[in-house]
Amino acid sequence: MKILVVDDEEDVKPLFLQRFRKEIKSGAVTFEFALSGEVALQYIEAHHSEVVLILSDINMPGMSGLELLSKIRHDYDNPPPIVMMITAYGDDENRKQSMELGADDFLTKPLDFKTLKEKLHITG
Amino acid sequence: MTAENIIVIALIGYIRKRTKSKDEIPEMDKVLLGLFFLSIGLLVIDAIFVSEAFTRWFMFLIVSGVIYLVYQNEELKLVRTVTYSIIPFYIVSIISSAVKLISSDLYDIIDNYIQTAHLLALLWIFAMMYQNNKQVKAEKKAEQLRLIELDKQRILEGKKEQLEYQVAERTQEIMQQKEELQVALSELRATQTQLIHHEKMASLGELTAGIAHEIQNPLNFVNNFSEVSIELLDEMETEIAGNNLEEVIAISQDIKQNLAKIAQHGKRADAIVKGMLQHSRSSSGTKEPADINAIADEYLRLSYHGLRAKDKSFNALFKTDFDPHIGLINMVAQDVGRVLLNLFNNGFYSVDKKKKDHPEGYSPELSVSTKKTDEGVLIKVRDNGYGISQEALEKIYQPFFTTKPTGEGTGLGLSMSYDIITKGHRGTITVDNKEGEYAEFQITIPFQ
Hints:
By secondary structure, chain A is an alpha/beta fold. Chain A has helices at about 10-20, 20-25, 35-45, 65-75, 90-100, 115-120, and strands at about 1-5, 30-35, 50-55, 80-85, 105-110.
């Protein structure tokens, strides 16, 4: 399963790689990382069929996670990738908006990787 | 001989009256009065006994005495003209008396001449008296003029005094006003200090949300990296038990990397907290070497996330172009940070407003660049928002001038920024602007 992680923080990459160390090793999951919504869209465009799940931060300079979500929902309908939104502010407004825009789930920072893994139905 | 007597009596009377000797020179007056009564006495004796020769020569003595007195005393200067005018008459009288004494025949012969001479001498007296009278009148007139002049002067002096009084009164009023103004000024200064404090606190409030976000991110990394490191250590133990040395080394390298990340993000949070404290603290005003790029980057993030936190719909692209060769520059870091925060907040505010007015086809953008120059550093903050109108452009550095709705801006941001850059750092702050298109603030800070 290929997961695209979209976050403007660079250190998200080593964190995910270590947190999913076993899963990556076992081949259950592979990761791609994008530092902005724009880069994420480019990647999706090029690798549309590969990406199964998108984990996106909401609060990013430039294109926000919500914009990215709405673009994905608009442009990539078949098959629709699973999109989970992550944000530092676990407020209702962002959650509501994410749901309205068609997000599959909503995660708050700091990320609880155990919960995330349960949601992804994968185990090391 | 009565004419000579009467003349001398009249003369003494005139002298006493003219010189006001009774009041002015009483000593002299006694002498004059004595001579006066003596002359009257002689006139009476002359009338009763007709002893001409005796009274005549005595008479001449009195006249000589009077003339001598007038000649000798400065107090009697006034009457000299009139007094001397009788001299020719008496000389004629003396000559005629002397001739009579020597020879009556000769006297008879020259009697006519003597009478003529007497007449002429008398005329001379009148002429002199007339002349004197004229002079006295002229003197009186001059005296009158002098009195009028004096009067005028007195009036003028009165007016002058009045004016001086008025001036003093006005001066006092002005002094009082000055004192009142000084009180008002010191009150205004106190208010200004308070307002500056408010402005600082207000911008701190705006910062808080940004700071929360900025601290939350590194804290998440600290927590996550330490958690994952614990997991890694568990794995490592397993690998050690399985004697898989290669894997052990790989894991240990990951742990090392994680610890470095923990330290890095810990420092990041630390720097943010320090920056916040610095912002709220009153400026110490001491310049210390500081990294302008780091300051600009930090405040840019704080501004962005602060606005994001306040308004979820806010978004903008920000670009940085930092010159890595600047090095450290002497400056009051928190003051310069405040200036930049202000410019960023203003820029973001402007692009956000434009974005809300034109949701389609407009991409809000703010860029920051630094560049080392020969004199110091040039910082540019550019946004593609609405720019500044021509009317507003003249006032942007004025305290309390704001284009924001009431309650949203204090109008002190740019005014404080201007003071900090120009007065605090001897730098310049200028704006390149096109209304409706963009605004670019350019700041120079010279090497101190």
